[in-house]
């Protein structure tokens, strides 16, 4: 599919969504009717490894590219939604300790939202990437009439484990912007660990949090080294552990017993997390997104079913709650960023306050 296929021009005002990643920036456009103008990824290199100045310029290029190919006049753009990987503050300031995608010292404490706003001269609404995907899943699932009346929790499995809590159609941010960091919730390990299996350690220093299980990093550091001892002679034992961790999903799609053991343990851990959520926020929907959503349909449905089986709900909750996959896969981040900007425009926030952070 080419970039111009499936694209229509806007009839009135729009917002642009920009999803910043470690290798690419993806962009989309959402118009005043709530319709997306593109139905596929529109990506360019993100240049985050080249430092803030060139990465912000790449985001500006991504913006200019998407309005060009959608034939959108610049005067119609009311706001830009931006998401990046975390950790970052609610206002788009990259952690002073850096992050996986922002490891260079020049990124530490860098205000990427404000920098992009200065570069483009338009209000920028910020969310982290997991929050953006959670927001899009919520709005897509419930639709405009119900989204503001419902709640959801999303777990996003990637290099780490991100998440988002949406209440009444809005992402819960918290006082320091750290709400929804579901990967660092420590879970009960009963019925998750095998007998004799050591408690997994997260890069954050916690033992037994969700990310120590349900992430690519958790597979590489904790789960796969253990399970390879239980499956001697497995082909992945001959691979470097980092490569083996990346190959594991392909084995899971083929129902390989070792891979299913690893991913089953991840699903159990997420089930424990969702059990906590059931007693804390009692959401209408539990979403799963990230790498497992990119897998073959039968595998991702098996994973979702396993999460559901290990989430302990009361009878009243079982009657009303559902478990769903985050829709539209890699497009969810940019679309969620656009939804946040759209909501800010509708609420007349960005028109009055350039530099708004998020809705």
TrEMBL record:
One family name in Pfam for this protein: ROK
Family: Belongs to the ROK (NagC/XylR) family.
Protein name: ROK family protein
Protein's organism: Kineosporia corallincola
